[in-house]
Amino acid sequence: MTSAVTWGRPITPEDKTDLCIFTAFQLVRGLRKRREIELMSNFYVRIMQLNAPVGAGRHEIAAYREMLRDFRTLEVTSHPNEHVSLMGKLAEPLSEHLLNRPLTVVELTDSALLTCDEPVATFEDQENGPDPVIPQARRRTRSRRRRGQGEIRQTRTLIQVQSTRNRGLARADDIVVPVGRRTLLFSHPVATVPSHFRMTPEESREAAVKVNKRLLAQAYFMAFAHPDDRHLLADPLARSTASAVSIPSRPGWRKPL
């Protein structure tokens, strides 16, 4: 697989399978996915545990209030192995989808690429469209048997765990994964380019700017670059991620403050 990417050897079906599995695991192994699992676990426990007791006695109510004080300062998280156990299940259908798309190893002849802790970039042909909007929660009537009347119940707060910008692989036109300073994997549903493609210097500069900008925008915690390309890390990470600075002792590495 490595020789097919770095030495220009033709990509065999076995190589493509390995590369698709590799890309799928890059999508599900990241810190963002782990944090999403932790948030959903936390919300689930709170929803199941923080309902006020009905018809409880004085001691039960006191215990409930004590639990509320704990939940104000503590966060419930799943065991780290929960994410590890889910990676294979999540990656398998993603790799199958990637296998149905053409795969090309693209070599840049100018400029350079960076990468980050969320290294798979997706692009759509309609990039300038508006972000999806989550509709307002609908009001619904809940029956109260005790009083025999209906009560209007409305959700006041919506918890958004995943970004609405992340529309998934199925809707992505281009899927790009940097695997070297000037090498990337490129997948398009109707690509007609060969398994290996060498860009012109002008095309390389344009592609590097576009890919690097997207990776910096989606980095969750850190971005990385070759020591000779530290200038690519000059811009701060997006506001939705941790702010970062370049550590002189380890060139090309960004560490959050």
* Cα gyration radius (Å): 24 Å
Low-confidence stretches: 139-144, 240-257
Order of helices and strands: HHHHHEEEEEEEEHEEE
Q: Mean pLDDT, nearest integer?
A: 76
Look at the helices and sheets and give the structural class: alpha+beta
The proportion of strand residues reads 15-25%
Q: Give the tally of β-strands.
A: 11
| C-alpha geometry | elongated
Q: Main sheet: which strands, in order across?
A: 3-6-7-1-8
Task: Give the N-terminus to C-terminus distance in angstroms.
Answer: 37 Å
Q: Which percent range fits the helix content?
A: 25-40%
The number of helical segments is 6
Major sheet attributes: 5 strands, mixed
Provide an overview of this structure.
With 257 residues, the protein is α+β, with helices and mostly antiparallel strands. Helices cover 37% and strands 17% of the residues. It has six helices and eleven strands.
Summarize the helices and strands and which ones pair or pack.
Layout: H1 2-6, H2 13-28, H3 31-49, H4 58-73, H5 80-99, E1 103-107, E2 115-116, E3 121-123, E4 140-144, E5 149-153, E6 174-180, E7 183-187, E8 196-198, H6 201-218, E9 223-224, E10 244-246, E11 254-256
Parallel strand pairs: 1-8
Antiparallel strand pairs: 1-7, 2-9, 3-6, 4-5, 6-7, 10-11
